[in-house]
Design brief:
This protein has 103 residues and is of the alpha+beta class. The protein has 2 domains: 31 residues; 58 residues, no CATH class. It has 4 helices and 2 strands. It has a two-stranded antiparallel sheet. Helix 2 runs antiparallel to helix 3. The radius of gyration is 27 Å and the shape is elongated. About 6% of the residues have low confidence.
Length: 103
């Protein structure tokens, strides 16, 4: 393959197709998808590691959801569920240090 058609970049793929003695070269780019980092403000791994905090979380959410049984609108129910989860997390789960978040 001539050097002008070789792939010099990892993100570009060079495809050569020969139709009826006419050479067609097509360059395509691949692998440009950006990975999204999870931006967690709280140390959610503590809920996995400590049984006491995990049980407290389960009880608090269960108690809050019992009061939600009377709500029939889906939007209101969903917003109340998010609100109850966020309230408990802010009270019982410590925030991450800003230095840890940057890493």
């Amino acid at each position: 393959m001539p050097s002008k058609y070789q792939n010099h970049c990892q993100e570009q793929i060079v495809i050569q197709i020969i139709f009826s003695h006419v050479q067609v070269t097509c360059k395509t780019k691949g692998g440009n998808l950006k990975k999204v980092k999870a931006n967690l403000k709280f140390q959610m791994d503590l809920l996995k590691s400590y049984e006491k905090s995990r049980d407290e979380f389960a009880v608090a959410v269960h108690n809050k959801h019992e009061t939600l049984d009377n709500i029939s609108e889906i939007e209101a129910l969903w917003s109340e569920m998010k609100k109850s989860r966020n309230e408990f997390i802010e009270k019982h789960v410590p925030k991450k240090d800003t230095k840890e978040q940057e890493k």
